[in-house]
Amino acid sequence: MARISIIGSGTVASIVGKGLRKLRNEVVFFDIDEKRVKPQRL
């Protein structure tokens, strides 16, 4: 398991993050707009 940080929470980052999460990694999103990050917590 790896701890992965993703900067940005747009469409591509969201898909990549979900894929990494399925591979049992810990994924954290960072974005300047906090409203976009909260719904994406995996």
What does this structure look like?
This protein has 42 residues and is α+β, with helices and mostly antiparallel strands. The protein has one domain. Helices cover 38% and strands 24% of the residues. The chain is built from 2 helices and 2 strands; from the N terminus they run E-H-E-H. The chain has helices at residues 11-22, 34-37; strands at residues 3-7, 26-30. The protein has a two-stranded parallel ribbon. The chain is globular and about 30 Å long. The model has no long low-confidence stretch (mean pLDDT 87).
What is the total tally of β strands?
2
pLDDT below 50 for ≥5 consecutive residues: which ranges? none
Q: Considering DSSP H and I runs of 4 or more, what fraction of the residues is helical?
A: 25-40%
How would you describe the shape?
A: globular
Our count of helices gives 2
Q: Give the percentage of residues in beta strands.
A: 15-25%
Estimate the mean pLDDT confidence.
87
Calculate Rg over CA atoms. Answer: 9 Å
Strand order of the largest sheet: 1-2
Terminus-to-terminus distance: 15 Å
Largest sheet: 2 strands, parallel
Task: State the secondary-structure class.
Answer: alpha+beta
